[in-house]
Amino acid sequence: MGLVSSLVAGQRAALDLESARGVADVTLGAGVRRLNEGAATSFVLGASIPLTFRDDNSGNIRAARAMVRASEQSLRAAELEQRTALAHAHAELLAVHAQATTPAP
Questions:
Q1: Phi and psi for 48 in degrees, rounded to 5?
Q2: Taking the complete model, does pTM exceed 0.70, yes or no?
Q3: How far apart are CA 14 and CA 67, in angstroms?
Q4: Angle 86-95-84 (CA atoms, 0-180°, nearest 5)?
């Protein structure tokens, strides 16, 4: 089951990556500029904020969410399969134990 849970973790990481790609990056800058007129020096600040009118990465985010859901369903199926196998083995063990402890006629 470790492989399946690793798959789920990987799909969640891919979803996080695609979600991060959908966010616009804010860029800040600062520096010193020497002016051509005389010996004047100035401090310069700059900022860039992209305006996103639509999310171009929404398709990739939806696909990543679908992959996460699919891998989570696979994990639940694997867990159910393991629990079912354990319940059958337990029932078989109880039957063998009962047979072994029953006195012979």
A1: -130, 120
A2: no
A3: 9
A4: 20
Q: Measured between alpha carbons, how far is 91 from 99 in angstroms, rounded to an integer?
A: 12
What percentage of residues in the chain have a pLDDT greater than 90? 23
Cα torsion through 70, 71, 75, 76, rounded to 10: -20
pLDDT at 86: 96
Domain ranges for the chain, please list them: 2-23+58-101
Q: How confident is the model at residue 51 (pLDDT cuts 50, 70, 90)?
A: confident
Q: Which ranges of the chain does DSSP label H, i.e. alpha helix? A: 2-21, 58-101
82: its two tokens: 């393991």
DSSP summary character for residue 104: P
Mean pLDDT of all residues belonging to the chain: 85
CB atoms within 10 A of CB 18: 19
Residue 34 CA to residue 41 CA, distance in Å, equals 4
User: For residues 1 and 78, is the Cβ–Cβ distance under 8 A?
Assistant: yes
